[in-house]
Amino acid sequence: MIELNDKQSTLDYVALTSVALERLAKNKPVRRSLPNDGRLRIDRQLPFLVVYRVPKSFDGGTGDLVTSEAAYLIAPSDEEHHGSIEALCQRLAGLLNEHFGTYLIVEIWSESKLREGQARLQPAFEIVTSERDSLPGTIEAFSAALSEITIAGHQSHVTVRETSSVAPVDFPAIELQSQSVIKSTVGVVLGLAVRPIYQDAKSKVLFPLVLRSLRAQVARALRKTISHFNGNHVLDNQTNSAFPHFESYGPRAMAKTARMVDQQLSEVSEAFDFILQVTPTNTEDAWRAFRESEFKVEPVLQYRSLPYDPSLLKRNLFRIEIEAVEDPTLSWLFLRKQSELDQQLSALRQLDTSDFLYSSLQLYGKPTVALVDLAESILMVQSEPCLSSQRGDCASLEDVLRQAREEIDYYHHRLSEFNGSVEVSEEIASGFLVSQDRLIVSSALQVSKRRVMPLLHHEIGTHLLTYFNGRCQPLRQLYAGLDGYEGLQEGLAVMAEYLTGGLTRNRLRTLAARVIAADSMIRGATFIDTFQRLHEQHHFSARRSFVTTLRVFRGGGLTKDIIYLRGLYELLEYLAAGHELEPLYVGKIAMHHLPAIQELRRRGIVHAPGVLPRFWKDTKVKERLESCRQLSVNDLLEHST
């Protein structure tokens, strides 16, 4: 798409309008530059246009309120350009009115006198209209949507003013009725005056965090209003409604800047593997030494040398210009991921020191009292004999590797991008570990034959599946992993074990033990104290007690292991609320991302999962899933064997 040179002294608006109309007639996007940093951006055929005219005086931030939308115009306010801008709007309205039977222009400007004397951060809006009697429902919907906006705990104040001229003070109104262009009115103009709480009244310094929050909320209010204006009178309708969801009026394509930021974040994320880096490389040697000391000498753990400088990766991380991303939803996701990567890199600089624990707590939190109580209640149930300790029932490493490769082949035939690999390692403490597109299997793996497939559903049917589903998305973060994604990942993975009949009582007790071990470590207990608590008080084998303790003490104190039981608990709450599992397989996301991901799906930026778990079509699994909607974690324990 061709951009006009901003330095061009004169601009042929007739030619620009002609090109814009030609592209829109074919439902192609329009991206054109205007004088004085003006821009016309229209994502596709849409029944609206959001307009901002740049005033002569400083008005930083206000223009950002329109750039979140799928159809916007930032125009110069010079008098000599008014006729051309007005004609452009009229021609756009005329064309798109033919497609939609209606057209709405919302012009936004700042008005510092709104709600003078109130709290500095209280949002205030004035809806300006000459059509109050003919559009009562739309005005009411606009007012209600704006009233939902809050900044720093302050609820917004909304008023409506009726006038014959909808325009900022001292600006001529944009009229959509002109005998020289069209014969009848083809659209409606509404004005929105905004109190510029994102600017300092005297110094005009911008407050970017305030602006970011206001921008996202104004975008939501605009889309609700547009949806209502376009005939949808149920503002929060579901996606199966006869009307499109209001969020579908947002941009459907990732702008070049957003794609670049997404790529840069992924490059930093893929430059290191946090969990692999904090996993000891001498687990088996440490176990033998600990056993030979009769469990009285704490093991000395060794870690991989960092093949990078965390400070340099941080430098690259904060060079990423997330503030240039116009889409509030994408910007929010990117900022959260940037913060998590920052915390992970800080933790790696503190690896194997006492300070590592504090970074771990920032990343994963600590177990709540309720989670510890849940773990204790699970451990009160007497364990069954450990099947994996009965050597006659153990699967051989060769059988496990063969079944793992067959499982990957199954998914590859259904999704060509599913190209996972299987590796054997002597350096991991757990039986399995997934790192990006690799399934890593411990050479010392001992697992009962009955547990092999449920564990493969855990590792391949959840972790690898969401990785490759994410690889098929336009948004790279969906395979790199959005911030805090691990909790939901492990909740889904453990649920996969349950749904396929492989969540044993011992397995649930192990997840509970991890919570108890993490809580013990946080409270200051030593490695030996925690080991003895699991071994003597809760009757775990010495080997399992050692591995569980090592997992939470690695690196200097890692609380990640609480996410397994916490993730399962949160997933059961999600199911109890009547939600479906399918949206959760779109990539590596957390529960707190769901509203944003669902919005992006409605806008067409994120697609449905490329492939679902192998067990998904099993009738018994579906019945078991439905029963989960009324079960607690302890109920799962009762149903496990």
Oligomeric state of the chains present here: single chain
Tally of separate helices: 22
Average pLDDT metric: 90
Terminal residue distance: 62 Å
Largest sheet: 8 strands, mixed
Q: Which band does the percent of strand residues land in?
A: 5-15%
Helix amount? 40-55%
Q: Structural class per helix/strand content?
A: alpha/beta
Unreliable parts: 1-11, 179-183, 234-240
How many whole angstroms does the radius of gyration measure? Answer: 29 Å
Task: Label the overall shape.
Answer: elongated
Give the strand order of the largest sheet, numbering strands 1, 2, ... along the chain. 1-2-4-3-5-10-6-9
Number of strands: 13
What does this 3D model show about the protein?
There is one protein chain. The protein has helices at residues 13-25, 79-100, 136-147, 208-229, 256-270, 274-277, 283-292, 310-318, 328-349, 356-364, 369-379, 397-414, 449-471, 477-480, 486-499, 505-522, 527-537, 542-553, 563-576, 594-602, 619-628, 633-639; strands at residues 30-34, 38-42, 48-54, 71-76, 104-110, 124-129, 150-151, 154-155, 157-162, 188-194, 421-425, 432-435, 438-442. With 641 residues, it is an alpha/beta fold. The strands form three sheets. Strands 1-2-4-3-5-10-6-9 form an eight-stranded mixed beta sheet, sandwiched between helices. A three-stranded mixed beta sheet has the order 11-13-12, covered by helices on one side. Strands 7-8 form a two-stranded antiparallel sheet. The N and C termini lie far apart (62 Å).
